[in-house]
């Protein structure tokens, strides 16, 4: 703290006679508001104001406090003003002086500012320079966040630990209750398409046959209405204002019609509709055809698979339509090419757009009742449906 007068400071009158009982009144500079001074450097004991000289005109040690500059008024013991000195510099560094830029580096001695003098921050906080050039404290971030830079002209900020480029985990898609139009996606974690943000979403169901709206069990079409025989891209999208995550469908593979207020996205899957504007393929790069039956010595319809490339892993599944022995209605059986030498079999075909199956002249062989006689028969339209499953 700053010592204003030495302990031996003595005031005298015009005849050089010590001014017994003289008074020093202290005010904030430029005002008539009294300002305390102190008798010790720790500022633990304030003087009376005014400070009174002893019988020899001697004043005790006087220390300035932590206020700004002072005004001193010396009077006689009978309060006659002898002189006034305004704007007495208090070199104590205060927040007001820092704000006014009156404290220059030339006024600060090397090693004068200790860590103890900086003990007014918040645990976990960080100081940085804001747009005005004045040091600013960044609020404490959340657990697991890292400090990132927005580049020149931008503030630093807390952000989640960035995932690797193209990272994606979870986000499993399935058909919802309305199997023709609704998609349910599980919670997931991904890096956006520009590799600048994480997209961490919760489970949600979106509807391809309704205009996009935020939230669960809401419309998912970014633009227009669902159309026949059309490819749709399903995205997770990140809201600019609060980083909340939603989902939706677009005819653009780059989310060109993303809703207002959303900029960043990640593509989760590609879907197709059929001639009735219904979803016809399953998700996550696996195609499941609608249920069908093709008679012996026939080729099935072409089923658009939406995989982008010709699949090389194709399976024919039989779905039981009637109960028999251990077969329950809806039970699925992977069919194989048994006894193909006598035409009990099938052959797949596929290209980059469609998948199909050709049934042998005698049909597809299947056990008639595996719980009993284990005899063999061929599939028929009364007891069985088919489904093609294809993967790249």
Outline the structure in words:
- The chain has 392 residues and is mainly β.
- It folds into 4 domains: 1-120, Phage P22 tailspike-like, N-terminal domain (Tailspike Protein, Chain); 122-160, no CATH class; 168-272, no CATH class; 287-391, Immunoglobulin-like, CATH 2.60.40.
- 1% of the residues lie in helices and 37% in strands.
- The chain is built from 1 helix and 30 strands.
- The strands form 10 sheets. The protein has a 4-stranded antiparallel β-sheet, with no helix packed on it.
- Strand 28 and strand 29 form a beta hairpin.
- The longest helix has 5 residues, at 95-99.
- It is rod-shaped and about 140 Å long.
- The two termini are 78 Å apart.
User: Which topology of the largest domain does CATH recognise?
Assistant: Tailspike Protein, Chain
Question: Alpha-carbon distance between the termini?
Answer: 78 Å
The major sheet is characterized as:
4 strands, antiparallel
Radius of gyration: 42 Å
SSE map:
Blueprint: E1 3-5, E2 23-28, E3 37-38, E4 51-52, E5 62-64, E6 70-75, E7 81-88, H1 95-99, E8 126-129, E9 135-138, E10 145-149, E11 156-160, E12 168-170, E13 173-175, E14 182-185, E15 188-191, E16 198-201, E17 204-211, E18 218-221, E19 231-239, E20 245-250, E21 262-272, E22 287-288, E23 303-304, E24 313-320, E25 332-334, E26 346-350, E27 354-359, E28 365-367, E29 376-378, E30 384-391
Parallel strand pairs: 17-18
Antiparallel strand pairs: 1-5, 2-4, 2-6, 3-5, 6-7, 8-9, 10-11, 12-15, 13-14, 14-17, 15-16, 19-20, 19-21, 22-30, 23-27, 24-25, 24-30, 26-27, 28-29
């Amino acid at each position: 703290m700053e010592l204003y007068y030495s302990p031996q400071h003595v005031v005298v009158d015009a005849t050089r006679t010590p001014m017994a009982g003289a008074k020093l009144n202290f005010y904030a500079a430029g005002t008539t508001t009294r300002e305390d001074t102190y008798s010790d450097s720790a500022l633990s004991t304030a003087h009376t104001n005014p400070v009174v000289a002893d019988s020899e005109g001697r004043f005790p040690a006087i220390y300035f406090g932590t206020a700004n500059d002072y005004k001193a008024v010396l009077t006689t013991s009978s309060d006659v003003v002898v002189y006034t000195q305004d704007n007495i510099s208090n070199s104590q560094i205060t927040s007001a002086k820092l704000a006014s830029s009156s404290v220059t580096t030339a006024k600060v001695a090397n090693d004068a500012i200790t860590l103890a003098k900086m003990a007014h921050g918040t645990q976990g906080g960080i100081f940085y320079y804001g747009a005005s050039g004045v040091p600013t404290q960044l609020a404490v971030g959340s657990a697991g966040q890292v400090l990132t830079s927005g580049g020149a002209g931008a503030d630093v900020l807390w952000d989640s630990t960035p995932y690797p480029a193209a990272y994606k985990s979870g986000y499993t898609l399935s058909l919802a209750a309305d199997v023709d139009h609704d998609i349910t996606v599980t919670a997931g974690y991904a890096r956006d398409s520009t590799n600048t943000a994480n997209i961490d979403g919760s489970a949600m169901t979106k509807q391809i046959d309704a205009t996009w709206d935020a939230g669960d069990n809401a419309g998912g079409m970014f633009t227009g209405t669902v159309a026949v025989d059309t490819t749709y891209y399903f995205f997770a999208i990140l809201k600019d204002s609060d980083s909340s995550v939603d989902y939706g469908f677009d005819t653009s593979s780059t989310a060109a019609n993303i809703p207002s207020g959303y900029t960043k996205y990640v593509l989760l899957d590609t879907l197709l509709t059929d001639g009735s504007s219904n979803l016809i393929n399953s998700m996550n790069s696996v195609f499941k055809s609608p249920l069908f039956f093709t008679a012996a010595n026939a080729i099935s319809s072409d089923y658009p698979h939406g995989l982008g490339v010709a699949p090389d892993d194709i399976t024919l599944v039989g779905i039981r339509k009637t109960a028999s022995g251990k077969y329950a209605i809806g039970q699925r059986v992977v069919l194989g090419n048994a006894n193909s030498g006598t035409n009990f079999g099938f052959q797949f075909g596929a290209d980059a757009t469609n998948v199909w199956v050709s049934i042998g002249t005698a049909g597809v062989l299947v056990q008639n009742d595996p719980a009993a006689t284990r005899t063999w028969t061929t599939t028929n339209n009364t007891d069985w449906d088919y489904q093609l499953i294809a993967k790249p």
